[in-house]
Write a structure and sequence with these properties.
InterPro entries: Spore_coat_CotH_CotH2/3/7 (IPR014867). By secondary structure, the protein is an alpha+beta fold. Among the domains are: 121 residues, Immunoglobulin-like; 183 residues, no CATH class. Helix content is 31%, strand content 21%. The strands form five sheets. Strands 10-11-12-13-14-16-15 form a seven-stranded mixed β-barrel. Strands 2, 3, 6, 7 and 8 form a five-stranded antiparallel β-sheet that branches. A hairpin with a 6-residue loop joins strand 18 and strand 19. Helix 1 runs antiparallel to helix 13 and helix 6 crosses helix 9. The longest helix is centred in the last third of the chain and has 29 residues. The protein is globular, with a radius of gyration of 28 Å. The C terminus is likely disordered. The structure holds 2-acetamido-2-deoxy-beta-D-glucopyranose (4 copies). One 2-acetamido-2-deoxy-beta-D-glucopyranose binds next to loops.
Length: 599
């Protein structure tokens, strides 16, 4: 009997351990080294089904279970995560990232100001609830040559894109340095091309992406935020998400993964519902701003006669892909008629002559005004594209480059205080206030009323403090750990000549994303400080009000539920249910045995 009792007790405790035990899968992404799972006092060596994913299974009887990972770098160095992770029962086994606590963060969504662009096909690539990981492998010497001369041609590379849901490998990709003046700064920006896997599949329908460093913004979220609001307004916008970058095993830093506006895959997704464009189906031009250049100019979209060699036309460049005609021929055939059309609209007031959609243009300008786009069309005519769907005979204005916004990029006081009636402030010698398409549109009192209505609608929706502030906080929370990782990393440019002393700290980051008090600083100020002054001034000038609560009669902008492969982790769910079924049999068997022995 004594023996039986002892055995009974033993079985009871075994049963307690196993009664609800499940085999649970844990997955971690590790760029270097061999990870171990630390759980229930055990250290479980992890296996790699494919790089950079590592997996292990553990028996778990109590949820939430606490665990974390360690890495052995193989050179005598190891690293333990300094925090505890938690997994609830039935929670998906996502690909976690070593040493980052946040795998997924569901951001508060912005209310939609206007209907979504009807030619848009969203890409799963821009699910923004996590920081993606990009791992590049390429020839080290070629890479160093690229850093020495950033104009060098692309270097062949293997590029891995890893998310909490999937790992995608592209063996035939190419990497090069992107940007203009940013080629001189310490943290370089990259372009990755030819993202097609062995089966010809692209990265969620994008074959080219940019990784923008944008060292000039201590908050690191301004461009993303601007793009989010453009999405809420339903305007064409390069999409944007955060990604950490590693090259040849080295940590490079946190970047903006964004669209390359000139890439056909982007244009198709934005203007053609993802369907293919042939080279002759569309035309694309870029307008720049350079009043101090050798041949000074700025892209005000004004008509300066039929002579294509006019100095004011030198600032535009053809960015389409049709090689059958040269750039000048495209300019004459496509771009000049656009400028002429704007002029005809201006002189006749006949809206049918206006090549741009008037509402769309006004919405972009309202956005520039509220967000303080110091480097954008209305203030400095440049930094935009114009796109034409040749088959539909339809032009679109396409704004771009939003790092100098929300109180960053200089002239902050002017951006914050210049009233609508006097905008733009005259910040540049030899650049006046004339913006031909906008001036022509605003001649009509009806359009002026429309413009005011757009401001009101934006303040009621995406710019409402109760909508945008929590989103700013959440975006900042998502990247805070990665910013902390990025700041001390050595920067790769061997010969930086610009902004070499521009070094931001965690304190700058935190103040730029959290503070709201009015600050006098003409170079840069916290996002909310800028917005609250800007909005207060606008509301007073127009005699309008910001409602107590935001409106969401058109719903919320949601990028996390975009359909596409890899959204659910069906496979690991199935594994859990099969193993728990096995484990169910064992305790039941033990219970029967126990009952038999005891009675
Ligand atoms: C890491 O996880 C193990 C196992 O759960 C735990 O004992 C340890 O305290 C954790 N480390 C930290 C820093 O939380
Ligand atoms: C850099 O590379 C470009 C393109 O390959 C070349 O034209 C230029 O001369 C190079 N510059 C230097 C300093 O080597
Ligand atoms: C790619 O585009 C196709 C066609 O528009 C669409 O059906 C598909 O869902 C897209 N795939 C991803 C992964 O976004
Ligand atoms: C993203 O780009 C914008 C400007 O284009 C910049 O404000 C921001 O700092 C960038 N963020 C990161 C993580 O590189």
């Amino acid at each position: 009997m004594k023996y039986h009792k002892a055995l009974g007790l033993l079985l009871v405790s075994t049963q307690a351990l196993l009664i609800n035990a499940e085999k649970v899968t844990f997955k971690v992404l590790a760029v270097n080294g061999q990870p171990t799972l630390n759980i229930n006092g055990q250290k479980i060596q992890m296996e790699s089904p494919y790089y950079p994913l590592f997996e292990a299974e553990a028996d778990v009887s109590q949820f939430p279970v606490q665990y974390n990972y360690s890495i052995d770098y193989g050179n005598g160095e190891t690293k333990d995560e300094a925090f505890t992770r938690k997994r609830e029962q039935n929670e998906d086994a996502l690909n976690e990232f070593f040493d980052r606590q946040i795998t997924i963060l569901n951001h508060p969504r912005l209310p939609r100001a206007y209907e979504e662009l009807d030619t848009l096909e969203l890409s799963k690539l821009y699910d923004d609830n996590y920081v993606a990981t990009i791992i590049v492998k390429c020839d080290e010497n070629q890479l160093n040559d690229l850093y020495q001369n950033t104009s060098n041609t692309a270097v062949k590379a293997q590029v891995i894109y890893a998310s909490p849901y999937a790992v995608k490998t592209f063996n035939d990709a190419q990497i090069l340095i992107s940007g203009q003046s940013t080629r001189q700064v310490p943290k370089l920006s990259y372009k990755i091309k030819n993202l097609k896997n062995d089966k010809g599949k692209e990265l969620y329908n994008r074959s080219t992406i940019k990784l923008r460093a944008e060292h000039m913004d201590p908050s690191l979220i301004r461009d993303k935020l601007y793009g989010d609001i453009l999405n809420s307004i339903g305007l064409p916008a390069a999409q944007n998400r955060f990604a950490r970058l590693f090259i040849n095993g080295e940590s490079i830093g946190l970047f903006n993964l964004t669209d390359d506006i000139t890439s056909k895959s982007y244009l198709e997704a934005t203007f053609n519902k993802g369907k293919q464009f042939s080279d002759e189906d569309y035309s694309l031009f870029k307008g720049d701003f350079c009043p101090s250049c050798e041949s000074p100019g700025f892209g005000d979209l004004g008509y300066y006669g039929e002579d294509p060699t006019n100095g004011m036309y030198a600032i535009y460049s053809y960015k389409g892909s049709d090689k059958k005609a040269n750039a000048e021929e495209h300019f004459i055939k496509e771009f000049l008629p656009l400028l002429k059309g704007i002029q005809d609209y201006d002189t006749s007031g006949d809206a049918s002559k206006m090549p741009f959609d008037i509402d769309t243009f006004l919405k972009y300008m309202a956005m520039e005004f509220i967000a303080g786009g110091v480097d954008n069309y209305w203030n400095k005519p440049g930094n935009f594209y114009v796109f034409k769907d040749l088959k539909k005979n339809q032009w679109y204005f396409h704004d771009s480059d939003f790092h100098f916004t929300f109180g960053c990029g200089g002239s902050v006081t002017a951006m914050k205080t210049t009233p609508l009636a006097e905008y733009p402030p005259l910040l540049e010698e030899n650049v006046g206030k004339e913006r031909p398409p906008l001036d022509a549109i605003r001649k009509s009192p009806e359009n002026e009323e429309k413009f005011k209505g757009i401001f009101q609608r934006l303040l009621n929706t995406a710019f409402h403090p109760k909508a945008i502030y929590p989103r700013i906080d959440s975006l900042a929370n998502l990247i805070r750990e990665d910013v902390e990782w990025d700041i001390p990393l050595p920067k790769v440019n061997p010969n930086p000549t610009l902004d070499t002393d521009l070094k931001f700290t965690m304190e700058d980051f935190n103040s730029h994303v959290t503070e709201e008090i009015d600050v006098e600083n003409d170079d840069r100020m916290p996002i909310k400080s800028f917005l609250s002054t800007r909005i207060n001034n606008l509301v007073q000038e127009l005699g309008i009000q910001v409602p107590t609560e935001f409106e969401n009669n058109l719903g919320l902008v949601d990028f996390s539920s975009i359909e596409g492969e890899d959204t659910s982790n069906a496979i690991s769910r199935i594994m859990i249910s099969i193993t728990s079924w096995k484990l169910f049999i064992i305790p039941t068997f033990l219970t029967i045995l126990y009952v038999k022995l005891f009675y």
